[in-house]
Write a structure and sequence with these properties.
The complex is a heterodimer. Chain A contains no helices and eleven strands. By secondary structure, chain A is mainly beta. Chain A is globular, with a radius of gyration of 14 Å. The termini of chain A are far apart. By secondary structure, chain B is an all-beta fold. Chain B is globular, with a radius of gyration of 13 Å. Classes of the chains: A mainly beta, B mainly beta.
């Protein structure tokens, strides 16, 4: 059973507009959420994170919103640039107790930003 | 510096070979991870080392054997692999101390023939 779901496999956006990537989760024990960006043949690159006690975190063009009651988070990229074209993974941390825990990844959304 | 390095970049091995994948980070991170990623799938956790001790083994077959010689190095020893083990193997590290973001290396593309 998928605990972290990214229901849109792909998203196409015009350069300069907003990209909104969505993620839903089922496990209420998740306490930390992260977004990663991945280019082909490279490892994922950490973008931004949010603790479950917050509802928004912003870093430059990237903003993550968390709605705990809906078990939903989203990543907003404004303005979108062609270099943002990549696969975006949502991940959630589950605490194993006293350790770093484990990240559960969604299946990813491929973002294409057209010039 | 947020760099995690992995060697080799590509590896082709036969089912009877023994090989090792290496991972290194010099960020002072206290946790290190091995993931396996198949095409068009998310990374799947294999092992977690926390303070150089194996803390999580996600039911990985014994033909994969992790080793953490020190806080900066992580190895994955491979023996008698199967063709279905062909994948991108990713190493990651995280700072610890209530910071959970993981920094990934570029991966080793493994092909088992």
């Amino acid at each position: 059973d998928q605990q972290v779901k990214q229901n849109s496999p792909s998203l196409s956006v015009q350069e300069g507009r907003i990209s909104i990537l969505n993620c839903d989760y089922t496990n209420s024990m998740f306490d930390y959420f992260l977004w990663y960006k991945k280019y082909p043949a490279e490892g994922p690159t950490f973008l931004i994170s949010i603790s479950s006690i917050k509802d928004k975190n912003e870093d430059g063009r990237f903003t993550v919103f968390l709605n705990k009651s809906a078990k939903h988070l989203s990543l907003h990229i404004v303005p979108s640039q062609p270099g943002d074209s990549a696969v975006y993974f949502c991940a959630a941390r589950v605490d194993y107790g006293g350790s770093q825990g484990n990240l559960i990844f969604g299946k990813g959304t491929k973002l294409s930003v057209k010039p | 510096d947020t760099e995690v390095t992995q060697t080799p970049k590509h590896l082709v091995m036969g089912m009877t070979n023994k090989k090792s994948l290496k991972c290194e980070q010099h960020m002072g991170h206290r946790a290190m991870y091995w993931y396996k990623q198949k095409a068009k799938k998310p990374p799947e956790l294999m092992f977690v080392y926390s303070y150089e001790k194996l803390s999580i083994n996600e039911s990985v077959p014994s033909r994969f054997s992790p080793e953490c010689p020190n806080s900066s190095l992580l190895n994955l020893h491979l023996h008698a692999l199967q063709p279905e083990d062909s994948a991108l193997y990713l190493c990651a590290s995280s700072p610890g101390l209530l910071r959970y973001e993981q920094y990934f290396g570029p991966g080793t593309r493994l092909t088992v023939t």
